[in-house]
Every structure is written in structure tokens, then in C-alpha cells.
Design a protein that fits this description.
The complex is a heterodimer of chains A (about 525) and B (about 1000).
Chain A (H helix, E strand, L loop, with lengths): L1 H21 L14 H26 L3 E2 L21 H23 L3 H22 L20 H19 L8 H5 L9 H17 L9 H10 L8 E3 L23 E2 L1 H7 L18 H4 L56 E4 L1 H15 L6 H19 L16 H8 L15 H11 L5 H10 L32 H7 L1 H6 L18
Antiparallel strand pairs in A: 1-3, 2-4
Helix pairs in contact in A: 2-3, 2-4, 3-4, 4-5, 4-7, 5-7, 7-8, 8-11, 11-12, 11-14, 12-14
Chain B lengths: L11 E10 L10 E4 L5 E3 L5 E7 L3 E5 L6 E4 L8 E3 L9 E3 L5 E3 L7 E5 H6 L16 E5 L8 E5 L12 E4 L2 E3 L32 E7 L2 H7 L7 E6 L5 E15 L13 E2 L2 E2 L20 H5 L3 E13 L3 E13 L6 E16 L2 E15 L8 H6 L32 H7 L1 E20 L2 E20 L6 E4 L5 E4 H4 L2 E24 L2 E24 L18 E22 L3 E12 L8 E11 L13 E15 L10 E3 L7 E3 L2 E2 L7 E14 L4 E17 L11 E2 L1 E21 L3 E18 L7 E2 L9 E5 L7 E4 L11 E2 L13 E5 L4 E11 L2 E11 L3 E3 H8 L13 E2 L3 E2 L15 E2 L6 H4 L8 E2 L4 E12 L2 H4 L7 E9 L3 E3 L23 E2 L7 E10 L1
Parallel strand pairs in B: 1-7, 13-16, 36-39, 45-51, 49-57
Antiparallel strand pairs in B: 1-4, 2-3, 2-5, 5-6, 8-9, 10-15, 11-12, 13-14, 15-16, 17-20, 17-58, 18-19, 20-21, 21-22, 22-23, 23-24, 24-25, 25-28, 26-27, 28-29, 29-30, 30-31, 31-32, 32-33, 33-37, 34-35, 37-38, 38-40, 40-41, 41-47, 42-43, 43-44, 44-46, 47-48, 48-54, 49-53, 50-52, 54-55, 54-56, 55-58
Classes of the chains: A mainly alpha (about 525), B mainly beta (about 1000).
Chain lengths: ~525, ~1000
């Protein structure tokens, strides 16, 4: 009995005291679950580009910037693909790829008093909310990233817009701090956008605020002064542009628009962009002038016979039958088949190691021009015209010197100063002297050109604000056949991601009417007056 | 005893021995051993051992309640073993249940069933699990394929876990062993878990080392062994050496296997598109073969006769204090599918010694070497490559005269599916396992009524795998260099992947067991604890672009293509267990257990969880008015309720970070969201049953009804991304399993020379999803999404073994919608329940005949109902190779209404569009809707095995002095199957045994059917 008591006692002691240590083996030895903020930042930036651009390929068809080689492509009919995640990448980017990674980054940054990282984190989240809600309208806001839930209710776009402002203010507050562990060298470890330059991040945040204030131009609460103020605090030249480094060593780290990724094989330049660049729209000339806009040969590619052709919405327009007149691939490659392979030297931002351009000085200048124009009762004046011309000039510079690898401002000088000056002085651009002649269509269509390839989502916001007004977007053609569930309306939003929402969150979708077959034609809040 | 002291007769001595039951060879405790004509005697202990002081010439009487008593005369030998046979079955049998402890079967409160090792070994099967099918009610074994080294999955009483493991726990001599099947997710190529197979590790066990297998199906298992036994437990008792003169036994077995069930292909039409000849496509939508075209029976020409040989050699013996047994097995099998083979070498040593009067130690050590050579399975696998080979092309000519690969397609190498001969001769797919299993069992009896017992065991294995895809092969693998997309050897210029899987399981327990009998009460109280640690460590290295085109080695790959991955999983658990059994007058029995587990995988606050069980039985034939009845010799009612908790997979409290390949590298959260609030899963089960024996055990009946209700499952379903992840670990969901199991045992004829035993096991199981976690509309296992749009999907209210697939789109009246543009039916593009793989019932029928030295036994496996997805047929149809495409000349108007907007109006447009399949192959490619290929209510009768044996009579053997015993046997397995299934074999698994949840049994796609095997051999004892 003595032995037994002893054994039981011993056993109990071992069990109780050793239990906790013995069981402490649930720390994953394969992958970390916590990491330094610097390790999280680069993938976040990479995911900003990925999310923005996966879906902008469909949006590029809505805005008729490019078209499919085949007729009646679903996005050219302003439709959507049922039971599909195309396009749904922006949703994935916002909730998953950026999603809680931001919280993890914040956790480390706040603990380590890395206020610069804290500011950057808030800036990225603000940007993600802004650009995502502009695509989706209502989104899951209050219940987002609540790991204990399986159902998530939607909030209004107005609330999301307010959240953007809140986050931008937090970002600014932290980016302005110099105490704690704030360090350019440390921020640069993960910062493939501005390499630790907080001043540029601050400008980026003001850029987001400018978007936020500007996109509600149809509302009585719109304040042109606010837009102007934000723009002035934002980018001051192309060196401030929000661009992300892409190494281009494999398809995984290549620029989204580069040949290594092959993301553009099913698109061709549109008739609209051809006509914008060859002067037919901006000068009113009936015949194309390929020598007018120096950006034309850099952005687009002529067919084998030297003529620039573009796909017309829903009509296909590949002209595949003839090698000489068939429309070449984008990428600036003259090839019509097969697509250029990885590493092929291509133009503009179509290179594998072109920087991923998200948001540019030119775009903010056009916002300012529009704000000034509106402030002046929709009549051009020298202030709005100056901003507009600044935007055109910045666009010419960007195309002349596309950002490449580590070089935020490129050095290729494809456009000579003389050609630049010639275009700015041409009939395609309103001169300062005749600022009163400036029309909304001048501002918006130059912005359209400036945003070519990288800025589809912003362009789509603009076109929706103007409700696809062909007085403003003069080359926009009503698709001859609209998607069958559209009830004759054009697309105003992208439906939430199918495999996230339409499969697993149907109840919440039903509450906001997103199950309607024409939900994608419903005007989001920012468009509404 | 006192009276003997001082007597010093020379012949006086101590006799020791073991008393066993002749029925199952298990030790019988509590047997009374008396010296005839005296009042001296003793009892056998828990291991059936006894010792008694006696003298030569005395007669020992061995008697035991319910058994025929035996008399033995003391001779010169100091060891006398006795075998008692029973007069009524199972009254006093003992079964080994918890941690090596035996228990009287009469005390059990739930259904357990024991299969004798001999019955298993007699089937001569390589994987002993396959021999259990039909032998135990409520147990279903599905073999992945008919290849050597194929995995088998085993399910007891249905699916308890929606997305987790449903395999029972395996225990050998009280110690856990690993029965996992390698999951391809650990590979650097992150395989899809369906294009390769890996042996389930219980298949390493040498069936000849098994004394008996006890299957704990119900709550009892979990009450004793805890979480891992929530889906039951397979308790294996191994053979031990017996005291007495040493013996050597040897047996062998030579077998021949033949594939005999094939999916049928048409031989009327050749390759082409829409009726036009085109030899550059694989599909057979071309014109009819020209008269005189040679048609090759490529399947027949490809298969070979599988052969195997097996040798078992064992030695055993011992003295009164020490026994030992050494057994070795070598087995080599070449499958019917060329390129498949398996070799196994097993050496096992078991020893037991009585260190002192109160202290016994037993130990065993088992080394196993197991190698398998495989071919790939599934969508781009070798088997489908064979099945879809053009019938007008001779498959045996796979090389050009100059030795280079012969192509079917001349225009596009990249899409030319491998000739299976080329595949097996150029691609490599093999693995090799070395395994050591050892255990120590120490038993100490400080007091007569008290036993302290400690068991410690270790199970270590190392598997080396090697997969090579030749630079000339179009066979495909997931490539980490290509976004984990399927990539052919040709495009990667050779793919090589090697992996090492190290697995260590350490397990120990300590129990104090007190047994007391006070007047009419017999009580047992056991208190103890268990610790368990399992660590799995997989290292993979992957490379592409071979320098030397045929050299098999990672150093032969381009270093820039090399990728490595390390996957470690560790889980630890501690448990405190208490168990109390009280029996009154052998009539009423009460059993209560409590177990508290502490698991490493749960959040710290939820690491500890307790679960109880309670059960009782009433042996009503002990009532005075029923006692001694000639008709009803035994009757018992039993009921039991148990709960069990289950922990989470390791490392899921937090979310893991994955390295990124985007510019700048870094980390990003994995798609699986962790959950710091996970609580244990809970399974509540209830069982009620009866055991009856009539006519002194000539007829026996055991009926059990059970219901289990697993709740709070831990799974990672896809949910809204709003939570931050694509798949999120959550708790939730409820399943309900109910079923009836019947065992009928009978001995209709029993004469001196002839006996006939007939046993029947009946199983009916039903599983229903009450609700899914978070009230999700559907949960599916992506591994099972093998081909087209059919998969193992669970829907609320549906069966746990549902097949979810696309179906015909229909209007509100249920009429099939037809596309107005092509006249073909429209798919609804929605996964919905289109089948249930669960059979209505299944029966195992065993008959044994013995006439003098001849014996014959056979087992029929019968199944009624249950649906099967015939993926092979769908594939063949879409390629124009199915027999159902033979009438393609017949124009057809598919009955239905046009999907023209009027389909739900009062006047839908009737379809009048005529389609001629011959010129419009879309009829078969687009028009083959998955739900059409779910074959309903599949029944089968299968002769699972038979054994004919002849034991050489003793009189014959006396003439020589070498062999003490000798016998010969002839055995067959899977000899025939009568079924209404149109495909080859409805009992295959589309993935492999590592697939979680409801698995892919009932998904017939790309797996070889089970071949029939005949074997013969001899068995001698020295």
C-alpha cells in the first residue's frame, strides 16, 4: 500500500507539473505565425497591384479601353459571368491578401513603436477600402475580419467612405511622427514603393483623401475646395507617383502587364483609345494623325500595314484572317501570334520589370482641374486649364520615361522635349490663352489617356460619375447588345466575389438586394446625386 | 498447503502452465486447477498462467464455468498447458480491451467482435485490413485499388467527422500504432492527394503475427482510448510464445492474380472529330473503322498475371518463467498491372519473463521493411492512359525502331498522352519504408487483488519516396515552378521529387487495477493515465530540367529549379482515466468510466476536457427461473452511453504565414484562418443491444442498435472572405449516425467427423447531416473533386456520404431544359445531392466446413444499395470510347423543353431539334451531364475469400520424425463479383486512404479493380 500511495503521488506530481510544458508543442515549426512588419510590407504592396489589376482587365472592357478579339465578350456587353470569380480579385485583395495581414503588421509596428510602419499600414488599408468600395458599393465593414463570425452583414458605401477618412487621418498622424523607432532605413526594408520616404507616403495619403472627396462629385456635399486642398498636399511630380517595384525574374515577381504574366493575351487596343490618340476625337479631324500625339506609338501598336486599328465593343475586331490588318497584342509588341514570351523587350509599362503604377501625379492634376472647373460653374478658367495642362504634361513625361525596376522616374526619354512641346501646343490640347474653351470632355478624356492600362478603376469611377455621358466620353459607344440580365442598363458595379459571397454569405447579399440579376447595374452611393 | 511442508518425495515438483481457450487460443483466467482426489488446487491468473505443487502420477482437473473440464496426468514434464473448449459460447471468454487489460466478455456493455488471427492469415492477403471486410458487423473496408501496396481505408459505424479523420485507432498489445497514409499536401509539389497512393501503415503488419483482432465499434472504445478512438478501435493481440518444448513452424504461399473486370470500350469507331477521321486527337469521334482494320485488345495485352510468394518462419518456446517467439515473413508480390509490385520483410521478436513472483515483463520488437513500386492513378494516370488507348493502335509498340518514343500524335507532342508501356518503363513512382515498433509491458502485483501495470511503446518509421517524370513523358505533376499547376515532364524537361517521411509515435500508460470479490459483488477499479506523442516530419526536394535525361537523382536537376519543403506536425496528449466495474451475481453489471484529456493542439484555456461513459448489462439467464434452460442457454441485455471529445489539428490556433514569391519576398497569411477560440469536438453515442445463445451455443445472436451524434466539429470550410480568410477553422455542425448490427453465429452440424459453422454479419448504417458548421449550405472535400463536376459534398439534411454533382437544368415542372442553339441538354451548373454512397445494408456470410482432416471456409460479401459515380464511364463517353456511344448514327431529339425564356410559362416550347451524335460530338462532350453517371442502387455479391485445407493426420506423420504437423491449403480471394454495376469495380476509392471526411469510396475513376487471386501453400510444424 505504501508503494501504491507513493506511485500515485508521484504520478500526480508529474502529471500536474509536467503537463503544461509537455503540451507546449503547438508552435508551428514549419511556418511562423508572427513576423516583423518589414516582412509583411512587400507582399502587401504586391497584392495592391494584383488586386487592382486582375479585375481591371474586365473593367477595361466596360470603359472600352480595350476589347476582346472575339465578338460579344461578356464584359463588353456590360455583363458578368455567373458562378465565377472573374472578376473577384479585388474582393480577395481587400479582405484576404491585404486583410488581416495589416492587423498583423500593425501589431508588430505598434509594439515596436514603428510609427512609420503604422502610418503605412493605415494608408494601405484606407487605399484598399477606397478603391474596393468604388468597385463594389456596399461592403462588409463593421463585421469585417471578425474571425468568430461566419456570416457578415454589409454596410453602406457612405460608411466605408467615412472609414477611409478616419484611416487616412490615422495614417497622417503616425507618418508625421519622428519619435520611437521611426527610421527610413528600417521602413525601406519592406517598402518597395517609396523606399522609406515618409514624405511621399504622406502625399500618397492625401491622394487617397483627394479620391475620397472627389468621387462624390454628384453630391451636394461635394467640396471642390477640399479636393483642391488634398491634391495640393499630394503628389508634386512623377517622382511621387505610387509605383511598386517588380523584379520580373519569374512570373511570380513580374509586372502584371509584362509578357511573363501573359495577362493581356485576350485583349486588343480599342477603337476609342486609338481615336483619342490619333486626334480624331480631340481635334475633331476626320482622318487619323499618327504624328499628333507622341504617346500613340508608345502606348499602342499598329497593324502590319502601319495602320492603328482598335477593337469595337462587342464586335470582336481581331481581323485575324489577315496578318497585315489584324490588331496586334497589347504589350507594344507587333506580334499577332503567338504572344510575346517572358523577357521580351516591350514598351511603356508592359515590361516584366516595369514598376507597378497605381496612382499618378497626372491623375491628381486632372482631379484638381475638374474641381476647379466645377467650382467655376463648369466653365473653364486659367486655373483649371493650368491643372489640366499640368496633367497632360505629366502623362507625356510618364510615357516618355516609364518607371522601371528601381527607377521611380524613368530615364528613357522616348519623347523629345520638342515633341512634348509640340503636342502641348497642338489643337488636341486646350491652350491657356483660350482657357474658357476648356470643356469637361477635355479634362476627362486626357485623364482617360493618362490612366491607360494602369488606371482603369479610376477611369471607371469617372465614367460612372458622368453616367457614361458621350458628351464627356466622346468615343464611348453604347454596346450594340447588352447582357441579357441588364435590363438595358450599363454596368455600375462589380458583384461581390462569387465563391466568397454568393456561395457562403447569401443571406447578407439578399438583404442588400445583391441577388438581383441586374445588381451590377445598380448605381453605387457615390454616383447618386 | 501446510500439510505438504516437510514432505520431501523425490518426484514432488512445481508444475506451471497456461490455460487457453480452444476456441480462440486466448488465455483463460480464473480456471480452477485441482488435484484429483484431493482438496488441493489453485486458479489461473489473468494471463491464464498457473503453478501448482504436485507429484508425478497425480491427475490435474482443469475446470471453468461454461467449459468442458479437462484432465491431465503429471508426467516428467514440468509444464502442463491445457486447452479448454466451451460448451456454451462466449460465456467466459476474455477480451483484451484497455491498455492490455483483459476483461470478461460477459461484463461488456457494448458490442465488440473478435476475429481470429488464423482467419485473417488464411486469406493470404497482403493488407490484413482487407481480410476484415464482412467479418465484423458495422465495419467497412475500401481498398484504393487492386495494386500491390494499395492503401485501404476502414470505417466503423459511419462518418463521425465531416472534415477530419474517420479511421479507427489501432492498438497492438495495448500500445498505439500509426495507421496514417501519406498525404500529398506535404510534398513540395503540394499534390492533389489523388494521383498517387501510399500504403496505410497498418498494412505493414504481418498477418501471421496476429493472434486476434478485437473491434471496438462503439462508445466503449472512446471511453477507454479517448479521442482517437472516437471512430472506434482495432485492438490487435499478437501471438506470444508458449512454455514447453520449442517449436518451429514454416509456411509458404504462392499466388497468381488476374485482372478480370474492365471498363468496356467500343471498337466500332476510330479517332476523329465530329465523324471525320483525325489521328491527332485522342477522342474516338471519327468514322467507323474500315473493314479489315485490326482491332487490338490493348487492355488484355497490357495486363499480366500477378504473382506473389510469401514465406513465414517462426520459432517459439520457453520455460516456466520465460517464453519467446520469433517470427519472420518475406513477401514479394508483382501486380497484374505491369510496373506495380510490393515487397515486405517483417521480423518480430516477443519475449516474456517472470522476474519475480509478483513481477512480469513482456517486450516485443518488430522490424518491417516495405517497398512499393507504383504507377500513377487518376486523371492523367497510367490506368486511364490504357483505358483510352486507340483500339486500332498496338499498345505494345511504344518505341520507334530507333529506340525513341513513338508518338501517336505527330503534330503536338505536348498533348500526346503517354503510352502506358512507355510510362511504366520511363517514369518512376516508388516508396520504401523501414519501420521499428517496440513495446515493453511491466506488470506488478504487490497484492493479490492489485495490479500495477505500465506499458511503453514506440513506433518509428521512415519512408523514402521517389517520383520521376521522364523528360519525354506527358504525365503531369503539380509544379511549384508553375504556380502548382499540373505540368508535364515534357514541358518541365523532367520532374523529380524525393521525400522522406519520418514518423515517431511514443505512447505510455500506467494503470493501477484493483479487483475484489465480496460475497455476490465482483468489482474492478482501474485508475491510470496515458501520455502520447506523435511527430511527423516530412522533407521533400523537388527539381526539374534533367541534365542527363534518364538519370534518377536530384543532383541531375537544374539547381535553379530545385525547391524544398519541410512539414512537421506534432501532437501530444495526456489523459487521466478512471474505470469502475461492478458485477452482481454474474447477472447485473454496471460500468462507469471517466476520462480527462489534455491536448496540445487546443487553445490553452480549452486544452483540458472531460468526458464520461456509463453502461450496464443484465444477464437475465442468471435469473433462477431461466437458469439451466436447454433452449436459451444465455441471454443478456446491454445499454451504454458515452461521450468523447476530440482535439484540433496541430498549429491551428493561430494562422500560419507563407513565404511569398512576389518581389521582395516576405510573408503573407495562409488561406486557412486559425482560430484561438476552438473547443473540442464532441461525440455523444448511445448503444443498446442483446446477446442470446440457444442450444448450448449452437446458435447465437447479437443485435446492436446505436446512435451517435457528433457536434461542434472542427473543420475549415470555405466561408465569406469577410472573416479575412478563404477557409476558416471553426467549430460547429451536427451529424446523426444510427445503425443496426446483427451477428448470427450457428453450428448446425457438429458430429465427430463433420462440422459446419455458419456466421452472418449484418450492417445497416445511416448518417445524416443535421446542420453544417455556421449553417453553411454545402461542405465538400476538394480531394474528392476528381473528375468533371462530381464530388463528396455534404448538404444539410443530406446523407454524410452524399455525392454532389451537376444535374440537368429543369423548368419548374421538372422537364429537362434543352439549349435552343444546339438541341443539347443544359447543365444546372449547381452542385446538389445526386447520390448517396451508403448502402442500404451489407452482409458478410461466413461458412466453415470440417470433415476429418479436410476443411473448407468461405466468405461472401454482399451489399445492397448505395450509389457509385462511374467517372471512368463519363470520361470514356466524353472521348467517344464508351459502348453507349455506339449508336451514334441514330439521330435523336432529346425529350425536354427549350431554354428559350418560355420554359416556365404555360406554353413551354417542346424540343424538336434533332441531333446526330455522329457528326456532332457535343452530344457526348457537352451533353453528358454528371448526374447521369451516378449509378444508383449498386448491389453486389462477392466471393471475398475461400480456403480449402488439408491437415495431414497424426497417424501419417508418426512415420517420420521431422514434422509434428503438416497441412496444405488452397486459397482464393475476390474470385467473382455479381453486380449490377456497369463499370469495373464499385468497391474502389477515387483518392486514397489519407483523404479525410467521407473519403472517396464510391468514386470510381482511374483506379484498377481488384484482381482475383488464387494461392496455395503448405504449412509445417517442427
Amino acid at each position: 500500500m505504501k508503494n501504491l500511495k507513493f506511485i500515485i503521488l508521484l504520478f500526480t506530481i508529474i502529471t500536474v507539473s509536467g503537463c503544461k510544458d509537455y503540451l507546449d508543442v503547438n508552435v508551428n515549426p514549419n511556418n511562423p505565425q508572427k513576423t516583423d512588419a518589414a516582412n509583411l510590407l512587400a507582399p502587401l504592396l504586391a497584392n495592391m497591384i494584383r488586386g487592382e489589376w486582375f479585375d481591371s482587365r474586365a473593367v477595361g472592357q466596360y470603359i472600352q479601353q480595350w476589347g476582346a478579339p472575339t465578338a460579344n465578350a461578356v464584359f463588353e456587353t456590360h455583363g458578368y459571368v455567373p458562378a465565377s470569380d472573374t472578376p473577384g480579385e479585388k474582393w480577395r485583395q481587400h479582405y484576404f491578401a491585404i486583410g488581416t495581414n495589416i492587423d498583423l503588421l500593425l501589431e508588430d509596428a505598434l509594439k515596436g513603436e514603428k510609427w512609420d510602419y503604422v502610418g503605412v499600414a493605415y494608408a494601405i488599408r484606407a487605399w484598399s477600402w477606397q478603391t474596393s468600395t468604388d468597385v463594389y458599393g456596399e461592403m462588409i465593414l463593421k463585421q469585417a475580419w471578425d474571425g468568430t463570425r461566419a456570416k457578415f452583414d454589409y454596410d453602406t458605401q457612405e460608411e466605408v467612405y467615412a472609414e477611409v477618412v478616419r484611416l487616412c487621418n490615422l495614417a497622417l498622424e503616425n507618418l508625421n511622427r519622428t519619435d520611437g523607432a521611426v527610421s527610413q532605413a528600417n521602413l525601406a526594408r519592406g517598402d518597395l514603393m517609396y523606399y522609406g520616404d515618409r514624405a511621399k507616403w504622406i502625399k500618397f495619403v492625401y491622394g487617397i483623401l483627394a479620391m475620397n472627396a472627389h468621387h462624390i462629385s454628384n453630391k451636394s456635399t461635394y467640396s471642390a475646395d477640399k479636393v483642391i486642398e488634398y491634391v495640393d498636399k499630394s503628389f508634386s511630380n512623377n517622382g511621387d507617383n505610387a509605383t511598386v517595384q517588380c523584379n520580373g525574374s519569374s512570373s511570380a515577381d513580374a509586372n502584371f502587364w509584362g509578357p511573363a504574366r501573359g495577362n493581356l493575351a485576350s485583349f486588343r487596343q480599342s477603337d476609342y483609345i486609338v481615336r483619342l490618340l490619333d486626334g480624331r476625337i480631340l481635334t475633331g479631324s476626320a482622318t487619323p494623325n499618327n504624328n499628333l500625339d507622341p504617346r500613340l506609338p508608345l502606348l499602342l501598336t499598329a497593324s502590319g500595314d502601319g495602320v492603328y486599328r482598335g477593337a469595337e465593343p462587342t464586335r470582336g475586331g481581331l481581323n485575324a484572317a489577315s496578318a497585315t490588318i489584324s490588331i496586334p497584342f497589347l504589350w507594344g509588341s507587333p506580334s499577332t501570334s503567338p504572344p510575346p514570351i517572358a523577357g521580351t523587350a516591350t514598351k511603356y509599362i508592359f515590361r516584366d520589370n516595369s514598376r507597378g503604377v497605381l496612382f499618378t501625379y497626372a491623375q491628381t492634376q486632372f482631379m484638381k482641374a475638374e474641381a476647379l472647373f466645377r467650382k467655376n460653374n463648369n466653365v473653364g478658367n486659367s486655373a483649371s486649364c493650368a491643372a489640366y495642362r499640368e496633367g497632360v504634361g505629366a502623362s507625356l513625361d510618364l510615357v516618355s520615361n516609364p518607371p522601371l525596376a528601381l527607377s521611380v522616374v524613368g530615364v528613357t526619354n522616348f519623347i523629345s522635349p520638342a515633341a512634348r512641346a509640340a503636342y502641348l501646343g497642338s489643337a488636341a490640347v486646350v491652350q491657356l490663352a483660350s482657357a474658357a474653351n476648356l470643356k469637361m470632355s477635355d479634362i476627362m478624356q486626357q485623364k482617360y489617356i493618362a490612366s491607360f492600362v494602369y488606371g482603369n478603376l479610376e477611369t471607371w469611377v469617372d465614367m460612372r460619375r458622368f453616367r457614361y455621358d458621350t458628351n464627356v466620353y466622346q468615343g464611348f459607344v453604347m454596346p450594340s447588345a447588352l447582357y441579357f440580365t441588364n435590363n438595358g442598363k450599363l454596368a455600375y458595379r462589380i458583384r461581390p466575389r462569387f465563391n466568397s459571397e454568393y456561395v457562403w454569405n447569401v443571406e447578407a447579399l439578399n438583404k442588400i438586394g445583391a441577388l438581383a440579376l441586374d445588381y451590377h447595374t445598380k448605381e453605387p452611393w457615390f454616383v447618386q446625386n | 498447503m501446510i500439510f505438504l511442508i516437510g514432505q520431501t518425495f523425490a518426484q514432488e515438483k512445481i508444475i506451471t502452465g497456461t490455460v487457453t481457450s480452444s476456441d480462440d487460443g486466448l488465455p483463460l483466467p480464473g480456471v480452477s486447477i485441482k488435484i484429483k482426489g484431493s482438496n488441493l488446487g489453485t486458479q489461473s491468473n489473468i494471463d491464464g498462467k498457473y503453478n501448482i505443487r504436485t507429484k508425478v502420477g497425480d491427475v490435474l482437473i482443469f475446470s471453468f464455468l461454461g467449459n468442458i473440464s479437462e484432465e491431465k496426468t503429471v508426467g516428467p514434464n514440468n509444464i502442463i498447458n491445457a486447452e479448454l473448449s466451451q460448451d456454451a459460447k462466449s460465456l467466459n471468454e476474455v477480451v483484451v480491451l484497455g491498455f492490455g487489460q483483459t476483461e470478461q466478455k460477459r461484463d461488456l456493455v457494448t458490442a465488440t467482435q473478435t476475429v481470429q488471427g488464423k482467419d485473417i492469415a488464411d486469406t493470404q492477403r497482403e493488407n490484413f485490413l482487407n481480410a476484415l471486410q464482412g467479418r465484423v458487423a458495422g465495419l467497412t473496408v475500401t481498398s484504393t485499388s487492386g495494386n500491390p501496396g494499395a492503401s485501404s481505408s476502414i470505417v466503423l459505424r459511419g462518418i463521425n467527422s465531416i472534415g477530419g479523420n474517420n479511421q479507427p485507432l489501432f492498438i497492438i498489445d495495448g500500445i498505439r500504432i500509426d495507421n496514417s497514409t501519406f498525404g500529398q499536401g506535404a510534398l513540395a509539389s503540394d499534390g492533389p492527394n489523388r494521383n498517387n497512393d501510399y500504403l496505410n501503415r497498418a498494412g505493414d503488419i504481418n498477418p501471421n503475427d496476429i493472434e486476434s483482432v478485437t473491434v471496438l465499434k462503439g462508445p466503449e472504445a472512446a471511453a477507454i482510448y479517448g479521442s482517437d478512438a472516437a471512430s472506434g478501435a482495432i485492438i490487435i493481440t499478437t501471438k506470444k510464445g508458449k512454455a514447453g518444448a520449442g517449436s518451429i513452424s514454416y509456411d509458404n504461399n504462392f499466388s497468381f492474380s488476374e485482372a478480370y473486370r474492365f471498363p468496356e470500350v467500343q471498337t466500332t469507331y476510330g479517332r476523329g472529330i465530329n465523324g471525320l477521321k483525325d489521328n491527332n486527337v485522342r477522342s474516338a469521334f471519327g468514322p467507323k473503322f474500315e473493314p479489315g482494320t485490326t482491332i487490338f485488345d490493348n487492355q488484355e495485352n497490357f495486363f499480366r498475371t500477378g504473382t506473389s510468394q510469401q514465406h513465414n518462419l517462426s520459432f517459439e518456446g520457453g520455460s516456466e518463467t520465460t517464453t519467446y517467439r520469433i517470427s519472420t515473413q518475406y513477401r514479394n508480390a508483382d501486380g497484374v498491372f505491369p510496373g506495380t509490385a510490393n515487397q515486405r520483410l517483417s521480423v518480430r521478436l516477443t519475449g516474456s519473463t517472470k522476474i519475480s513472483k509478483k513481477f512480469t515483463s513482456t517486450g516485443s520488437f518488430n522490424f518491417i521493411n516495405n517497398s512499393t513500386q507504383k504507377t500513377s492513378k487518376g486523371q492523367f494516370g497510367t490506368f486511364l492512359g490504357l483505358l483510352t488507348w486507340p483500339t486500332d493502335d498496338d499498345i505494345t509498340v511504344y518505341l520507334n525502331p530507333d529506340g525513341t518514343r513513338r508518338r501517336l500524335r505527330t503534330t503536338n507532342d505536348g498533348t500526346d498522352v503517354d503510352n502506358p508501356f512507355f510510362d511504366i518503363n520511363n517514369n518512376v513512382n516508388r516508396d520504401k519504408t523501414n519501420r521499428v515498433v517496440g513495446n515493453i509491458d511491466l506488470s506488478y502485483n504487490p497484492l493479490e487483488w492489485l495490479n500495477l501495470r505500465s506499458l511503453v511503446g514506440a513506433d518509428f518509421y521512415n519512408t523514402l519516396g521517389n517520383v520521376l517524370v521522364s523528360p519525354f513523358s506527358t504525365a503531369a505533376q503539380n509544379s511549384p515552378l508553375n504556380g502548382f499547376n499540373s505540368t508535364s515532364g515534357l514541358s518541365a524537361r523532367g520532374i523529380l521529387e524525393n521525400y522522406t517521411d519520418n514518423n515517431l509515435l511514443i505512447n505510455g500508460s500506467f494503470f493501477a487495477t484493483a479487483k475484489k470479490t465480496i460475497k455476490d459483488f465482483r468489482g474492478t477499479l482501474a485508475i491510470g493515465g496515458e501520455a502520447f506523442d506523435t511527430r511527423n516530419d516530412v522533407n521533400t526536394i523537388y527539381g526539374e530540367r534533367f541534365y542527363e535525361l534518364t538519370f534518377n537523382g536530384i543532383n541531375n536537376t537544374d539547381p535553379t529549379t530545385q525547391r524544398a519543403k519541410n512539414t512537421i506536425t506534432q501532437r501530444r496528449r495526456l489523459a487521466v482515466i478512471g474505470r469502475f466495474n461492478l458485477n452482481w451475481k454474474d447477472m447485473v453489471n454496471l460500468q462507469v468510466t471517466g476520462r480527462n484529456d489534455f491536448s496540445s493542439t487546443l487553445p490553452i484555456d480549452n486544452q483540458s476536457f472531460f468526458y464520461p461513459s456509463v453502461g450496464g448489462s443484465f444477464e437475465f439467464t442468471q435469473l433462477p427461473m431461466l437458469k439451466g434452460s436447454k433452449i436459451l442457454s444465455f441471454g443478456k441485455l446491454r445499454a451504454s452511453y458515452a461521450e468523447v471529445g476530440k482535439d484540433a489539428p496541430p498549429y491551428r490556433i493561430g494562422t500560419n504565414l507563407d513565404a511569398q514569391f512576389t518581389t521582395g519576398g516576405g510573408f503573407q497569411y495562409n488561406v486557412f484562418g486559425g482560430n484561438s477560440a476552438l473547443v473540442p469536438e464532441q461525440v455523444k453515442s448511445f448503444e443498446v443491444g442483446t446477446e442470446l445463445q440457444f442450444l448450448k451455443g449452437r446458435l447465437g445472436l447479437d443485435i446492436a442498435y446505436y446512435s451517435t451524434r457528433p457536434t461542434n466539429q472542427i473543420i475549415a470550410p470555405r466561408i465569406s472572405y469577410g472573416g479575412g480568410f478563404i477557409l476558416q477553422f471553426i467549430n460547429g455542425g451536427t451529424i446523426e449516425n444510427t445503425g443496426v448490427e446483427v451477428q448470427l453465429t450457428s453450428n448446425p452440424i457438429k458430429t465427430k467427423n463433420f462440422s459446419w459453422n455458419s456466421d452472418l454479419n449484418f450492417t445497416r448504417a445511416r448518417g445524416r447531416v443535421v446542420r453544417l458548421p455556421a449553417d453553411l449550405p454545402e461542405y465538400y472535400n476538394s480531394d474528392t473533386w476528381l473528375f468533371a463536376n462530381a464530388r463528396a459534398s455534404l448538404f444539410p439534411g443530406g446523407s454524410t456520404t452524399s455525392i454532389g454533382s451537376f444535374d440537368y437544368a429543369r423548368n419548374e415542372k421538372g422537364e429537362v431544359l434543352i439549349s435552343p442553339t444546339n438541341g443539347l441538354p443544359v447543365s444546372d451548373n449547381t452542385f446538389k445531392i445526386t447520390g448517396d454512397r451508403q448502402p442500404d445494408f451489407s452482409i458478410g456470410l461466413i461458412n466453415k466446413f470440417a470433415y476429418k482432416s479436410l476443411s473448407l471456409s468461405f466468405l461472401l460479401d454482399i451489399r445492397k444499395g448505395g450509389d457509385v459515380f462511374n467517372g471512368n464511364e463519363l470520361q470514356l463517353t466524353r472521348l467517344g470510347l464508351s459502348k453507349r456511344t455506339e449508336n451514334r448514327d441514330q439521330p435523336i431529339i432529346i425529350p425536354g423543353v427549350l431554354n428559350d425564356g418560355l420554359q416556365n410559362s404555360l406554353t413551354p416550347t417542346k424540343n424538336t431539334i434533332q441531333v446526330t451524335p455522329n457528326t456532332n460530338q457535343n452530344f457526348y462532350t457537352l451533353g453528358s451531364i454528371e448526374s447521369d453517371f451516378i449509378e444508383k442502387d449498386i448491389n453486389w455479391v462477392r466471393l471475398q475469400d475461400f480456403t480449402l485445407g488439408f491437415q495431414f493426420p497424426k497417424t501419417l506423420l508418426q512415420k517420420q520424425k521431422v514434422f509434428k504437423t503438416a497441412s496444405v491449403f488452397f486459397t482464393g480471394t475476390d474470385i467473382f463479383m455479381i453486380t449490377n454495376y456497369s463499370g469495373a469495380d464499385p468497391n474502389v476509392n477515387g483518392t486514397n486512404a489519407s483523404t479525410l471526411g467521407s473519403g472517396a469510396a464510391g468514386f470510381d475513376y482511374g483506379a484498377l479493380s481488384t484482381p482475383r487471386t488464387f494461392s496455395f501453400g503448405l504449412r509445417v510444424g517442427l
